Amino acid sequence: AVTELGQMVVNLNIPMVLIPLLIAAVITTAVGSMTTAGLTTAGIVLPMMPYLGLSPIAAVLSIGCGTLLFSHVNNSGFWIVSQLFNLNVKQAFKYLTFPNALAGLIAFATLALLNALGLI
């Protein structure tokens, strides 16, 4: 099954550094835990590494960027920080979700550039 999945991913004709990011983003959105999403994604991506052609560092950084993209109401960290700073839900989205997503996108853009240049 891993071989077929790896071949399917390679045939998508997208930059391979996107694959760990997308998997991590989907899992983070679904389960709400960045830690669980990161560890689960690592377990999914590890067998695909020979097909992705990424360094372990690039894969791990891509996973980290993906876990930042969609922090929202099903994330316990969202509620902890919002309650700690006495934010309502609208404020929490403005001051937590948006900056997290922006950080993930900026970090991924940097990673993609470094990966394309062969530095990672």
Overall description:
- The protein is mainly alpha-helical and 120 residues long.
- The protein is built from 7 helices and no strands.
- The protein has helices at residues 2-10, 18-31, 34-45, 49-52, 56-68, 76-84, 89-116.
Give, in order, the helices and strands.
HHHHHHH
Structural class: mainly alpha
Distance between the termini: 28 Å
| DSSP strand content | under 5%
| Cα gyration radius (Å) | 15 Å
- Described by the principal axes of the CA atoms, the overall outline is elongated
- Kindly state the percentage of residues in helix: over 70%
| Mean pLDDT metric | 92
By DSSP, the count of extended strands is: 0
Secondary structure layout:
Elements: H1 2-10, H2 18-31, H3 34-45, H4 49-52, H5 56-68, H6 76-84, H7 89-116
Helix pairs in contact: 2-3, 2-5, 3-5, 5-7, 6-7
What would a concise description of this structure say?
The protein is mostly helical. Helix content is 74%, strand content 0%.
Key descriptive features of the protein:
about 120 residues
